[in-house]
Amino acid sequence: MRSIKGTKLFSAKEIKEATELLREGKLVAFPTETVYGLGANALDEGAVKAIFTAKGRPSDNPLIIHIGEEEDIEDLISGRVPQLAEKLINKFWPGPLTLILPKAKKVPDITTGGLNTVAVRMPNHPIALKLIKETGLPLAAPSANLSGKPSPTLVEHVIEDLAGRIAGIVDGGQTGLGVESTVIDLSREVPTLLRPGGVTYEELLEELGEIEIDPVVKSKFADESKAAISPGMKYRHYAPQAEVVLIEGKEDKIKDKIKELITANVDKKIGVMVSKELEDSYLGSNVKIMGSKDNLIEISQSIFKLLREFDEEGVEKILIEGLQLEGLGLAIMNRLRKSAAYQIVEV
């Protein structure tokens, strides 16, 4: 085992040591099928407080509790598991779906951002599940990055942001989806999508028959007046140091607008993030390919990694091709709009 700035770096075979740190109330980052999470005992106020400190995260931003068995949710919520929740659990767990339900008294207010609801999910990653089960604890685990920066999909991203700030990191290689879990609020009369993610709106609608979408999900502007009832709803997120501009509209018009913006910003170091379908449209420019629009998982896996790469290269302004708000595209665009701090050009 090696350490960086005092943070221990574990392999997948060294989970036992990571487990001991978590039981001591310390912070350990670990891979999930979405992004790397920063874990701590969700029922330990001191450990949860340390998460906010390490990340520089606003204290009114609730955390998602990760569990190792489906039945573990029963200890964290008030009352019985509703039928709708059971239906979604049977269909999508383990997996990238977070359920919001009324919380049990044992869940500290600091874990829920002071809300009377709790967010719970069961991840679908062998390291995450093994860590949770061997710890025997529900783990609060927001993304393992500094608050506001692009989420970490590689262990190098976690090291860059949190080495020296947390006790340990479990290296599990690149994560799968690359964007965070879907969050659905089941505490309301009608199930409401609060954050799009790996489970799509269309998949949820097929299971539930009726579902509302919180206006924040598709918003093109930030509304800081509303309380955050789910991670990723209120504050600027996923943002690199460089200025980001998102261009939305029809493909041919997006292509021309990006060319126009490259020309208009010749005094700046420009980076361009586009789909494989526009790969050859900007010869001579610093272009990174997100993936094909025919394979949105490929794009979701790459967006945060590419934003960090542009920062490493000292790029000052990033121009990004917008996608359609369908399927996984809704989650990708939700993240890109926040990365751009809602600086959107419509064509």
UniProtKB/TrEMBL annotation:
Residues 12-199 form the YrdC-like domain. It is found in: Cytoplasm. Keywords: ATP-binding, Cytoplasm, Nucleotide-binding, Nucleotidyltransferase, Transferase, tRNA processing. Its main location: cytoplasm. Its EC number is 2.7.7.87. L-threonine binds at residues 34, 66, 121, 141, 181. PROSITE patterns: YRDC. Gene3D superfamilies: DHBP synthase, Threonylcarbamoyl-AMP synthase, C-terminal domain. Pfam families: Sua5_C (PF03481), Sua5_yciO_yrdC (PF01300). PANTHER family: SUA5 (PTHR17490), THREONYLCARBAMOYL-AMP SYNTHASE (PTHR17490:SF16). Belongs to the SUA5 family. This is Threonylcarbamoyl-AMP synthase. It comes from Orenia metallireducens.
